[in-house]
Amino acid sequence: MTIKPPRVAVIGAGLSGVVSAKHLKDSGVEVVVYERSSKSGGNWVYDERRAPEPIYPSLNPSQADLASINSEAASNGEQTQRSLNGDHGNGLKDDELGLAYAPPGPAYDGLTTNVPTNLQELKGYPWPEGNEQFVNVRVCGKYLQSYSREFGVEQVTKYNTRVENVEKRGDKWRVESTTLLLEGPNKGDITINSDEFDRVIVANGHYHASKVPDTPGLKEWKDTWPDKVQHSKSYRTPDGFKDQNILLIGAGVSSTDIARELSHVANKIYQSSRGGPYDLPIELLPPVASRVTEVAHFETPTKEQTKPGGVTLKDGQVLTDIDRVIVCTGYHFSLPFLRNFHSDSTAADKADDTVLVTDGTQMHNLHKDLFYIPDPTLAFVGVPFYTATFSFFEFQAIAVAAVFSGRAWLPTQDEMRTEYQERLQSKGSGRAFHDMKGEEAGYVKGLVDWVNSHAQSTDGPKVVGHSKEWLAQREVLRETFLKFLAGKESREREKHR
């Protein structure tokens, strides 16, 4: 008897979605990929249009960046059609339709990779010859789009199609979606679709739901000077920042990178830090930038003010000359199409055994950051941080494809739960739970060994893990960074003698 292969929905055509679809197809699985924008590549697509600003402070994680539409009307049926089509309601212009439906990602013009291409190569698909070790966002986007075409992912992808709701009905997953019409006389209208699948892979990334702190006075500044306060997601180029005094809120990767870009045009740059574990070393800041403590409050604007001004820091210092504010405080995990799996008011350390997202800092109840423990027919690819993302997410995709195609099988639910709880005890809840610094190679080896342990009995292909050369190069990068940190600590000790 011939067993019919499962149907799998993949949500998102960024890196995680494209590699997931490719390996599912290789396994003989029927795949449909949903992508709300008009091209693959996800965060590696540079779009010069600025992403719409989030609400200040940010909304609940369950709403994400769908708020620009949901604030006008619920995302279902005729109401959604009215909210998108200017002839039927809110008057959105043609060039605003795509922005409202599928906001651009956070990629800026000068964005480059921080991991060399020889550690980021996808299996069987070399980077084009002549590229440097660290490449611009456009090169990455083209690489992923070319990969998608080469391996037939393009043909199974529904573009301009946004997943609105996913729910389990019996033994099937029902995926409800809308498709935005961008051309023709009905431009701005949507079609409403529903389909059923045996499995679902969520690959929507975690750089779309902007996180904005509820700092006293920040909302009032945004309301008063909407063009002078922005989230880093909407930053594109240094244009417009010449001779400005800029406050960057947050001291992570995006804040430091933006500081380095703006250093060539800005007058002064302040980088506000809470002193958290994910702050980058202050030595990475350009000379024109200085690090200051966390913001206590923004001074209440007066009617006479024509530009922002005073900011009080938690150490008592007052910055009186601020022209622009860029909020670089990151993103929430968000699954707006799985709202029943959200609990916005719950702290991460209070999550129960069924919730997926609480306060937005963690994805809960996933076996190896991949399989939803209560129902492993729902899987996620691309959750962890601090990895060589291209290769790391591909190994995750290979593991999920092996399980979904029947070439590998999972431990029992009790065993998965025990392993999850042990990891939670070890790493703690919140963002740190997904931090892979120092754990990447071991994690990948574990996945490869597990899949290969089933290969003989299932007649599946053996997976080749990281090469010795890859591991050696990764270690060189790690040691270089550790030496940098050691030098920093030595300089700090000298300073305080």
Automatic annotation (TrEMBL):
GO terms for molecular function: flavin adenine dinucleotide binding; N,N-dimethylaniline monooxygenase activity; NADP binding. Keywords: FAD, Flavoprotein, Monooxygenase, NADP, Oxidoreductase. Pfam families: FMO-like, NAD_binding_8. Residues 73-96 are annotated as: Disordered. Residues 73-84 have a biased composition (Polar residues). Gene3D superfamilies: FAD/NAD(P)-binding domain. It comes from the Eukaryota. Belongs to the FMO family. This is Flavin-containing monooxygenase ustF2. It comes from Lachnellula cervina. The gene is ustF2_1.
